[in-house]
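Worked Example 4.2. Consider the chain below.
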Amino acid sequence: IDGTIAQIENPEINIDELLTYIKGPDFPTGATIVGKESIRKAYKSGRGKIKVRANADIESIPNNKSKIIFTEIPYQVNKARLIEKIAELVKDKKIDGITDLRDESDRTGMRIVVEIKRDYSPEIVLNNLYKHTQLQNTFSIINIALVNGEPKTLNIKEMIYHYIEHQKTVVTRRTQYDLDKAEARAHLLEGFKIALDNIDEVIKIIRNSYDDAEAKLMARFELSEIQAKAIVDMRLRRLQGLEREKLDAEYADLLEKIKGFKAILADETLLLDIIKEELEEIKDKYGDERKTQIIADVGEIDLEDLIEEENVCITLTHHGYIKRIPEDTYKRQKRGGKGIKGLKT
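Applying the procedure from the previous section yields the following structure tokens:
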């Protein structure tokens, strides 16, 4: 809404300036968009992809253990299926380091808890979860719209331009409808005022006429067919009960409205002011705080991000065999080798 108002006020605004108002997609389930540049490219070209990650907190727990708590997941990800997928990956040993997985979500919000093995890196587990599950998802942006009956890919400024043009059409048609309705009512009131000024004669003509009362009223008081019909269709008691002050007040109010409607139709600036006012009303009524965070791109998760960092001993034999042994499981050799001490020299 802020971006649309900014473009109404400055039609020459460029896309980079628009992006100070339009930060990026905001998903109802929150989470985090990774990569500001991907949003910028998508909004400039009308096509692109964005990465969305679940929001996670890492907490320490007793016995040198830790846990990962997910409080928001990407849009359209089914929580139950997500948990099943994580459990399946752990069972198949595609993700190591997880000792417990549970759903602690309640009415206050989402809470998926993943407990990590002792002395195991929670960051490595988190990267593996992002890599192998829908805790990180990719969303495509394709801004295609029908423009004059033809499909076109639009950048963000073009989209807003066509939206504004549509709103101009909507407000113009609505104003024209209101004007026609007000003018029709004012026309009837003019007839009622004439009838009220000549109430006795009007009643006499209606009572003494069989089926030509409308024609006689039109001829006698220069009324239109619509005015004459409205007077004849009104019950005599109601016609006699018309109050001059109420008619005059309603008529004056209608004339003021008619003047305003005509001004809007004649002046695009007034038309755009109405569009801005209505956008502000929508913002005040339905606007809320942004749910989805946006952070700079952290790059792709590569193989090194998925492997626990540890000291190891690499053994190479004369026959070309190679073996990797973790430091904490390496035993002192019996044939004069230095064993674990040798790793540190």
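The two ends are 65 Å apart (CA to CA). Residues 332-336 have pLDDT under 50 and may be disordered. Compare this with Example 4.1 before moving on.
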